[in-house]
Amino acid sequence: MGAADGPRSRRKVTVRITTVRIKVDALTPTILLGPREARHVLVLRLQSGDSLRVFDGQGNEAEATLTDLTELGAVLTLGAGVQATAETPQPVTLAIALLKGDKLSDVTRAATELGVARIQLLITRHADAREIGTQKLLRLRRVAEEASKQSRRAVTPEVLEPVPLAELVWSGTLFLAHPGSRARIADHLDWQVPVTVLTGPEGGFSDPEVSQLQERGAVSVTLGPRILRAETAPIALLGAIVATGV
């Protein structure tokens, strides 16, 4: 008998099972899951009578009980509501210029974990891309959904089709990441109103774009003394908000 076969090997091993969370269309008394989510439940080896949580992506979350499960679908019975605690006092929107490759997927995943409620894609003068395909947009939305599950949020951020920067509409305060600014975002946050953070492409915003945004009330804020890549800047800005404790 080796050293590893002592009393520890006879001790009952307890495995902590993390609460399973599933995104559903709506919190109704009876919830039907399609094949995709049913396969996910099967992989997790859940059985009839097991408990899990469901959320609608709009901020509502509840307990649920699995009452039927096959490879083709599953049936859940809704239980008590659960207070969602992972959201900011006011919704935060990330407005970001189109980027090439998978950079937007990485930004969407991290931004969801950092608490944004909406991601507005933008076409700017120096944007790396001028359009986004339907499949790529759908993929970004799936990334946001998966990141919501992982980060235990009840909100799944909307990922909106790109609009020209001049057509960007916001309410509350818009913070513009702009090299040369000395203002810190933490000093200007006002949680009485919604927050929008805006970051540009690799080439940055043009001078006329910056001037127009400032004329519309945008607040230019610093990202520190270093020049950040286009996919790093939004994470740094959102991280500065999260660092305030929200």
For the secondary structure, the number of strands is: 11
State the end-to-end CA separation: 53 Å
pLDDT averaged residue by residue: 89
Structural class: alpha/beta
Q: What is the approximate shape?
A: elongated
**Strand-residue fraction?**
25-35%
- What gyration radius follows from the Cα positions, in whole Å? 22 Å
Fraction in helix: 10-25%
Counted by DSSP, the helix tally is 6
Largest sheet: 6 strands, parallel
If strands are numbered along the chain, what order do they take across the biggest sheet? Answer: 8-7-6-10-9-11
Structural key phrases:
alpha/beta; 246 residues; 6-stranded parallel sheet; 5-stranded mixed sheet; disordered N terminus; single chain
Short description:
The chain has 246 residues and is an alpha/beta fold. 24% of the residues lie in helices and 26% in strands.
Task: Explain how this protein is built.
With 246 residues, the protein is of the alpha/beta class. It is built from 6 helices and 11 strands. The strands form 2 sheets. Strands 8-7-6-10-9-11 form a 6-stranded parallel β-sheet, sandwiched between helices. Helix 3 links the parallel strand 6 and strand 7. The longest helix has 17 residues. The chain is elongated, with a radius of gyration of 22 Å. The N and C termini lie far apart (53 Å). The N terminus is likely disordered.
